[in-house]
From TrEMBL:
It comes from Listeria newyorkensis. Signal peptide: none annotated. Its main location: membrane. Belongs to the CpsC/CapA family. Residues 4-92 form the Polysaccharide chain length determinant N-terminal domain. This is Polysaccharide chain length determinant N-terminal domain-containing protein. It is a multi-pass membrane protein. Keywords: Cell membrane, Membrane, Transmembrane, Transmembrane helix. InterPro entries: Bact_polysacc_biosynth/exp, LPS_length_determ_N. The chain crosses the membrane at residues 17-35, 173-193. The lineage of its organism: Bacteria, Bacillati, Bacillota, Bacilli, Bacillales. Pfam families: Wzz. It is found in: Cell membrane.
Length: 223
């Protein structure tokens, strides 16, 4: 006889042994908490803001807007260019390669503003602040030499007090996933129990096994 999953049977088992589901869910949360706090390296992020403000051309405002967009895009590329990263690595004596350093850098533009937000992630918040501020200062100097642009300046350098909370891993999400994993494990166990249970509990089970109609049944009574 092919054994099929009886959902009603599984639900009955879950209601009966709800405490097992709860315990495994709590164990999953505890495991996720311990693993995240003791075995996963925390990442901190420091951010600085750089203002890119090209000279205005009163004769053609549309040209100014287009030029501004092009400059923003250009500086987003320059931030992670080899020329800039080499200077950062040399100044701070970093052991990271350019590729490794670039992978920890993010460059975004706040809406349609003239502000670039540069972020650097590191396992040490102080190092993250130091790298992003150095990167911003070098970008400011590179704007003068590479682009002949003097209206690029550091608007808001990174501060250590704003970089003390790790950005990854996300403890709340990890704990939630641990709980889900524990509950899923409990359900999987009960499904296996249901599938491997060979007891004949209903007349349908008997009919499916012997392929004949059941004429009657005897109720079990306690003496």
């Amino acid at each position: 006889m092919d054994k099929t999953i009886d959902l009603s049977g599984i639900i009955t088992i879950l209601k009966r042994f709800w405490w097992v589901v709860a315990i495994l869910g709590i164990m999953g949360m505890a495991t996720a908490f311990v693993y995240t706090n003791h075995f996963v390296e925390k990442q901190y992020e420091a951010t600085s803001q750089v203002l890119v403000k090209p000279e205005k051309n009163e004769d053609n405002r549309n040209f100014d807007v287009q030029l501004n967009k092009q400059l923003i895009s250009t500086y987003q590329v320059i931030v992670t260019s080899g020329s800039v990263l080499n200077q950062v690595r040399d100044e701070l004596n970093l052991a990271d390669s350019n590729k490794e350093l670039a992978s920890r850098i993010t460059v975004t533009n706040e809406g349609s503003s003239q502000v670039l937000v540069i972020g650097v992630q590191d396992t040490d918040p102080e190092q993250a602040v130091l790298v992003v501020n150095t990167l911003s200062e070098i970008l400011q100097e590179e704007a003068k030499t590479m682009m002949d642009e003097k209206n690029v300046r550091v608007l808001s350098p990174a501060e250590l007090e704003n970089s003390q909370v790790p950005v990854s891993p996300n403890l709340k999400i990890t704990i939630l996933l641990g709980f889900i994993a524990g509950v899923t494990l409990a359900i999987a166990i009960f499904v296996i129990i249901e599938l491997t249970n060979t007891k004949l509990r209903t007349r349908e089970d008997v009919e499916a096994l012997v392929d004949i109609q059941v004429l009657g049944s005897i109720e079990r009574r306690k003496l």
